[in-house]
Specification:
With 292 residues, this protein is α+β, with helices and mostly antiparallel strands. The protein has one domain: q2cbj1_9rhob like domain (Jelly Rolls). Helices cover 21% and strands 21% of the residues. It has 6 helices and 18 strands. A 6-stranded antiparallel beta sheet has the order 1-12-8-15-6-4. α6 links the parallel β17 and β18. The chain starts with 30 loop residues before the first helix and ends with a strand.
Amino acid sequence: MTLSLLDRPVDWGPADLVDLDRYPILNLDTGAGAALVAEVRARMAETVLCALPGFLKVSVVPRLAAETEALVPLAYRGPAEASPYFFNYGSGLESLPADHPRRRKTPRIMSQVAYDLIPETALIRRLYEWEPLAVFLSRALDVPRLYRCADRFQALNLSVMGEGGCQQWHFDTNESNITLLLQAAEAGGEFEYVPLIRSEEDENYEAVTRVLDGDASRVVRLAQEPGMLVLFRGRRSLHRVAPCRGKRRRLQSVLAFNSRPGVLGSHESNLLHYGPRVALFPRPQPASRAAE
């Protein structure tokens, strides 16, 4: 009998998952580590995105993908469509024209495995909870410190997209978004974004409308590959995952970090994204909010 990949024991710690020769994140103060931090900062400043291919060793990616595949039955489908601004809780949208971007919804065909359903032994969870990763990301993003999200559902998610799967055009609530692709779709599934389409002073609804109408003149496309770490500033940059094609699922981990401790997501958002079971848990009183 042939053992499945998950039946084969591994004795890997988080440091065994990262290609430390290529990305020396354990020594960031001198030499190659300091140069890595400087390079990531420069690329983020120039393009709002930095992709680090091969951040995970090629040899470990199949194991992480297999662990994620085993958790797919726990993924919750979530809303089938959403606006670029997500769900605009209590925002009085009825006063806006029907074609206003805040009322425009586009398909969202994906499922998510919430943090509390990911076993503590899962390699992706062990990597997320590894303090040297948080230290590297804080240095790379040029913030004094990063804290893992305190939300029991949002902290670490596994995003699952099958044939036709996609994520709608949207903005992030957090300043930065961090993802690791674990398995690519057979085709499609590109990450698409429009850098700095809005500012804190100007929502630039006209430009957002043009993108929603199909104008791709400012769209940048990133073909991700398994094992690639992506740092992205998505608060002001409209972005989506293009439709996936083929039978192989697109599997991606979303690692939530915040510059403040104790950040939680909204209860309404958690109900929508993770299902009715959210109501079984006490509703927390957050010190500060995470992504909607």
